[in-house]
Amino acid sequence: MQKRLLLLFFLFVLQITFAQTNLSWQGYFSYTQIKAVSESPTTIYAASENALFSKNNSTNIIKTTTTVDGLSGETITALYYSPTFNKTIVGYQNGLLIVVNEADGSMLKVVDIINKNLPSSIKRINSFMEFGGIAYVSTNFGIVQFNLATSKFVDTYFIGDNGAEIKVSQTAIHNGFIYASTSSGIRKGDTANPNLIDFKQWQVTNAGDWLGIVSFGTELYAANTAGYVHKYDSGSNTFNGFLPLSEATTNFRSTTDYFIITTANTIFIYNKQLVLQRQINRNEIPEINSTFSCATVISDVIYIGTTENGLITNSLSPGSTYENITPVGPSRNSIFSMQVTPTQLWTVYGDYDTFYNPYPLDDFGISKFSTSGWLNIPFDQVFGAKSMSRIVINPTNENQVYASSFFSGLLKIEKDIPTILYNQTNSGLESLTISPPDPNYIDIRINGTAFDKSGNLWVTNCRVVNGLKVLSSGGQWKSYTMDKILSAPSENDFATMVIDKHGTKWMATSKNGVVGFNERSNTFKKITFGTDLGNLPIQDVRTVAVDNKNQLWIGTTKGLRVLSNVNSFQTESQLTTESIIILEDNLAQELLYEQFISDIEVDGANNKWIGTADAGVFMVSPNGQETKYHFTTDNSPLPSNVINDISINSSTGEVFIATSKGLISFKGIATSASENLSNVYVYPNPVRPEYEGTVKINGLLNKANVKITDVAGNLVYEATSEGGTLEWDTTAFGKYRVASGVYMIFVSAQDGGETKVKKVMIIR
């Protein structure tokens, strides 16, 4: 396999767009963490953390399925493809079951297990086994029958002692009996018995804790947690020791021709004569740095699922080359922070908890997405930079990128290659100190970063007195002491930072609210908790953003505040914020009251995109009075309501949303305003009968006047743009759909000094 540092080119991937009221979504998921595999004679099916992909061995077409297509963002724990019904069933950790009809791609979410009156901790689906048109679903509470023809649940078997819930890892059919490997013995019931819901009808053949059971040929095998494979002896009605393993199994399965045992470090493949045909040790595979999760065989090809490196193939014959067939994507789903420009997107995966604790330290590397695909830079290329929490792109030189490490310092990347790690030895960055002092302990927590108009990079250094640093465009470092503005600097953590048009740096902090600094006047000011100290709801601020009207939007762990004008930094001794009061059900309420706000971004039309820690994403109007969208896992393809970061492509209006379970984008229309009207364009054009969306007029100046008339000069639409794009719903002032024909679009700047004329054809 090629090194992951090399640019990964797109595989031929079939992607489907999820439409919600004519709004377009796109998924950017990681497929590296393989949870389960299944197979048909021609196709391999694989489940990653919360997405699926399959590869047809005849056509080599790879198809991906994500939340954009209708999957849940929850963690997948089981997968099974039924050749008889041409359906794929997906099991989840929370008990959800999704049935995918492979014939038409339709999906059915079955929530019966979720709705059972049982503790949520025992609803996990562990495996599937098909027999007689029924899928036997092994769960952490027992066995559930699922009818594959009707897609409905039938009976539930609680087979523990006295009918108690019991963890069932797997089931198998052998000589007319159904066998279950459980956490408390192997249990069996007669398949002809119509009363298997009675726990008394189940017999215990062996005690102990068992991980798996499979039927292969005329034999039955089971594996226990001690890593020992047993073989069933029908004469004594018990399982006897057969094959000792050095570790417990991670997957235990059989196909028509092969018996496959997978452990974290080894795969054993036996043929029908029970001869070991192939053994694969993890250290044999180049570039793999993770363990095995599962494996299967189709014809003479082995498919190996790994916990971090995706799906790998190899021939049954030794000596062949290993190939990684995983769809390209980011290294991981849990993207902690990102930044997007019109041409590229950079992401980092390191993190810290609610209390800014980065331990255990992460070593996940960095990813970049561009028109060429995904580039994943592994940890061994970043000079040991751990727990990277922020990333910033130089706006005057997009080949220069900096990643903040919340433990190791600041990483510089030039032309996609990490070049230097700034730390306490080669820069102005400082390590925090511990008590009692230990000179060998180095912990440099860099977080918020921002470039100013002169190309200088401003950096926040947590838990030190000189918490604000700047790396000049010429390469010199300078520090600013903050002990007079920060209470307990050694306990203060910084979050994000933004620089306004006057050059004032606004820094979100954990214990000091928002701190502003302007180097021209060498002045620090603070906005914090308390009516007379800034009116924040709490000192813990997680994000700050300056909008198109020079307002500072502040997201805290207990709600939202707005500073009406950043210019007040120059004139007011105490800066004071206000909450946004809205009317809901004719009652005055505070917008996002007590919400943990994780990020705020401003789009080209001055709308605010607000991410939360557990309530999804809100998009509110420029003044916050109208909530235009509220996206959650229930009404959108968001894989999680935990929003880590948001970033907006100013050119296209595409809003990237990083959640705890995957990256997805919303293709909005709010683009940044252009400097002139030379690049105005209209799409789609022509508008065909099957099209149900709106016509977009892009490349506009802010506050441009747009008039649309028919060829006779009759006015059918008029509006003023906010930002760079305006939409027309192809109606005459919202009353009726306009007829087929050519329509003239007249665009003029607010001062009338610049005009543009375009045409669009409507075909009904």
Account of the 3D structure:
The protein has 764 residues and is mainly beta. It is 1% helix and 46% strand. It has a five-stranded mixed β-sheet with strand order 1-7-6-5-4, with no helix packed on it.
Summarize the structure.
With 764 residues, the protein is mainly β. It contains 2 helices and 66 strands. The strands form 17 sheets. Strands 1-7-6-5-4 form a 5-stranded mixed beta sheet, with no helix packed on it. A 5-stranded antiparallel beta sheet has the order 2-3-59-58-57, with no helix packed on it.
Shape, principal axes of CA atoms: globular
Q: Which strand order does the major sheet show?
A: 1-7-6-5-4
Number of helices: 2
Radius of gyration: 30 Å
Strand content: over 45%
The class by helix and strand makeup works out as: mainly beta
- The average pLDDT score comes to 93
Described by strand count, sense and barrel closure, the largest sheet is:
5 strands, mixed
Total DSSP E strands: 66
What is the percent of helical residues?
under 10%
Distance N to C terminus: 52 Å
Q: Could you name the ranges where pLDDT drops below 50 across 5 or more consecutive residues?
A: 1-22
Task: Give the secondary structure arrangement, pairings included.
Blueprint: E1 13-14, E2 19-20, E3 23-28, E4 36-39, E5 43-47, E6 52-56, E7 62-65, E8 76-82, E9 87-92, E10 97-101, E11 107-110, H1 112-115, E12 125-131, E13 134-139, E14 143-147, E15 152-157, E16 168-174, E17 177-182, E18 185-190, E19 203-206, E20 210-216, E21 219-224, E22 228-233, E23 238-244, E24 249-254, E25 259-263, E26 266-270, E27 276-281, E28 292-298, E29 301-306, E30 311-315, E31 323-324, E32 337-340, E33 345-348, E34 366-370, E35 373-377, E36 388-393, E37 400-405, E38 409-414, E39 417-422, E40 446-451, E41 457-461, E42 468-471, E43 477-480, E44 494-499, E45 505-509, E46 514-518, E47 523-527, E48 541-546, E49 552-556, E50 559-563, H2 568-571, E51 581-584, E52 587-590, E53 597-602, E54 608-612, E55 617-620, E56 627-631, E57 643-648, E58 654-659, E59 662-667, E60 681-683, E61 695-698, E62 705-710, E63 715-720, E64 725-728, E65 741-748, E66 755-762
Parallel strand pairs: 1-7
Antiparallel strand pairs: 2-3, 3-59, 4-5, 5-6, 6-7, 8-9, 9-10, 10-11, 12-13, 13-14, 14-15, 16-17, 17-18, 18-19, 20-21, 21-22, 22-23, 24-25, 25-26, 26-27, 28-29, 29-30, 30-31, 32-33, 33-34, 34-35, 36-37, 37-38, 38-39, 40-41, 41-42, 42-43, 44-45, 45-46, 46-47, 48-49, 49-50, 51-52, 53-54, 54-55, ...
Protein name: PorZ N-terminal beta-propeller domain-containing protein
Pfam families: PorZ_N_b_propeller (PF21544)
Keywords: Signal
